[in-house]
Amino acid sequence: MSLICLEGASAVGKTTTANEIARITNTYVIPEVNLLFERPKTESKTWYLERQIERWQIAQEKLKTYNNVILDGDIFQPLSYNWCFDFNMYNQSLNFISEFFRSEIKDGKVKFPDKYFYLYTNHENLKYRKGNDSTRKRSNFERHLEIVEPHQRYYKSLNYFIPDYVQLIAANSIQENIISITDNISPSHVNFDSVELLDNVTNWLANNNAKNLIKF
């Protein structure tokens, strides 16, 4: 059994791919926070982070009855997303987010997924797919286009700490996505320390600006 995560830019095809895999295999899909939970009118500073922890806990329950569980969007997304915007959007610093997750990991309430699959394509395809998808509003889509490159760079960096942990997939079609994922769904590196990985990621984020070249 594996807990995997699908990531990539808005409109790249994550949800469609995940749902199609679930249709043809014994797989359960956990939607992103904004689809799974109703936002309160007044939310605490940690509300969104806490809902990510809840997604992981749902995944653990579903793994008891499903062969695989797919996270449609990363539980640790607050790290990558806020980094792409220089931690200026939600009044949450890198240290604040990292310490929250570190505490939850140490308490056994969350871990990194077994494997990531990162779907990517060019801006033109993303705009085309967004325009032809009437099922999703995709608020702030233009803003999300601005961070496509640094977002992908973040997930590529995870392979520096755990080789082959993130598999990048050119999202040419849903069927090709499905084949690439189902052929490689069993992780090759399942035994790693999530606290150590978080610390490495935090250090990398602290020493790299989303607008600059990467450093290790």
Descriptive notes:
The structure is a single chain. A five-stranded parallel β-sheet has the order 2-3-1-4-5, with helices on both faces. Helix 1 (about 15-25) crosses helix 9. The chain is about 50% helix and about 10% strand. The radius of gyration is 16 Å and the shape is globular. The protein is α/β, with parallel strands linked by helices and about 220 residues long.
Contiguous runs where pLDDT drops below 50 for at least 5 residues: none
The spatial strand order of the largest sheet comes to 2-3-1-4-5
- Helix content percent band: 40-55%
Strand content: 5-15%
The multimeric state of the shown protein is: single chain
Whole-number mean pLDDT: 90
Order of helices and strands: EHEHHEHHEHHHEHH
Quick recap:
This protein has 216 residues and is an alpha/beta fold.
Keywords:
216 residues, five-stranded parallel β-sheet, alpha/beta, 5 strands, 10 helices, globular
How do the helices and strands line up, and which of them pair or pack?
Blueprint: E1 2-8, H1 14-24, E2 27-30, H2 33-36, H3 47-62, E3 68-72, H4 77-84, H5 94-106, E4 115-120, H6 123-131, H7 141-145, H8 148-161, E5 166-170, H9 174-182, H10 194-207
Parallel strand pairs: 1-3, 1-4, 2-3, 4-5
Helix pairs in contact: 1-9, 5-10, 8-10
